[in-house]
Design a protein that fits this description.
Layout lengths: L3 H12 L8 H14 L3 H13 L4 H29 L9
Helix pairs in contact: 2-3, 2-4
Length: 95
């Protein structure tokens, strides 16, 4: 039997699959991107399977993957800059 928090989460999660603003294809691609960005293997697996069932193409999956990679790379670039600034490290002094 599910506890009240698990039940609440399950209800919330299922409610995100039925929405009034996104079409099914967009909802699946957003879910895939979110799963990838959060490094959630079960979510990524789920959304990949749902994308295949929905007829989403390899090219569309590749575009989503590229976008997630670009955002992740940008985040790492900002993370490095934050460390450099916080600890007053000058990369130009590295030879």
């Amino acid at each position: 039997m599910l506890g009240k928090h698990q039940r609440a989460y399950t209800e919330f999660y299922h409610s995100t699959h039925t929405n009034e603003h996104l079409d099914t294809k967009t909802e699946l691609l957003v879910g895939l991107a979110a799963g990838m960005a959060m490094n959630c293997l079960p979510c990524t697996n789920y959304y990949l399977k749902q994308c295949k069932k929905a007829g989403i193409t390899k090219g569309e999956i590749s575009d989503v993957t590229a976008k997630v990679m670009a955002v992740a790379a940008g985040q790492k670039k900002l993370q490095m800059q934050e460390v450099l600034d916080k600890y007053d490290i000058d990369l130009d002094s590295f030879e």
